Amino acid sequence: MTQENEKRLSIIREALPRFEEPQRIEHTLGVYRECLWMSKVFRLSEEEAYTVCAAALLHDIAKTLPLEKALLLAEKQGKTLKTDVPTVIHQYAGAMLALEEFGRELVNDEMLSAIACHTTGKAGMTMLDKMLFVADFTEAGRKYRSCLEFREYLHSGCEKINKNDKNARLRVLDDVAKRIVGYTITYLTEKGKKIDLAMIEAWNSMV
Ligand SMILES: [Fe+2]
Ligand SMILES: [Fe+2]
Fold first, then answer.
1. What spacing in Å lies between the alpha carbon of 160 and ligand 2's midpoint?
2. I need a surface site. Which of 7, 112, 117, 192 has the fewest CB within 10 A?
3. Which residues are near ligand 1, the ion (C-beta closer than 5 Å)?
4. Which residues contact 138 (CB under 8 A, 6 or more apart)?
5. In angstroms, what is the span from residue 164 Cα to ligand 1's centroid?
6. Distance 191 CA to ligand 2 centre (A)
7. Number of domains the chain is built from
8. Ligand 2 mean position to 138 CA, how many Å?
């Protein structure tokens, strides 16, 4: 990463305590480290690496934003929160808050796209969307059995593949993203919880 981009990332990193409690910052930094690892494994360009790492740092900044404030922010930006599932609102509000707080100097549209689908996925996710979506699940701080399994599958899957075969690694990423969507839908169904439409659309676009 260039010094300029390192500097841009540190501006965001240093601002995190304004938005997140220490425990959530731990998770955020875990997602950041997972995305940094992916940026090397998948040989991302400078701009892609910056984008996914900044998206990781920003992805949960609206996690505790009160609904009223999220609604005001959406109105200000001429957008809607697009969901009635409480746990999903922060992905849309997070993208809006990232732009509001950090501006175009630090934030780009690819980042906003990844932040806005990091919980649910969506139909036709880009490579960077999938990386953030997967990293949110496979970061090292997550201790659930399923997280450990998917992390192991992703890391050992990528390590087994020849360094030059980026496409084969991307297939592993696709596969893990699909498994996470499938697992989450099953989990929510078993718990009797709502499933956001974007997640169903993500699943349908992957099978
Ligand atoms: Fe989140
Ligand atoms: Fe997260």
1. 27
2. 192
3. 60
4. 34, 147, 150, 151, 154, 155, 176
5. 32
6. 20
7. 1
8. 10
Residues contacting residue 158 through CB under 8 Å, at least 6 positions apart: 41, 169, 172
Range of the domain at 72: 3-206
Nearest to 55 by CA among 83, 26, 28: 28
Cα separation of 105 and 176, whole Å?
A: 32
Q: Structure pTM? A: 0.98
49-101 residue pLDDT tens: 999 999 999 999 999 999 999 999 999 999 999 999 999 999 999 999 999 99
CA 63–ligand 2 middle distance (angstroms): 9
**pLDDT tens, residue by residue, 143-176:** 999 999 999 999 999 999 988 898 999 999 999 9
Non-local CB neighbours of 1 within 8 Å, separated by 6+ positions: 9, 46, 49, 50, 53
Tokens describing residue 202: 């993500």
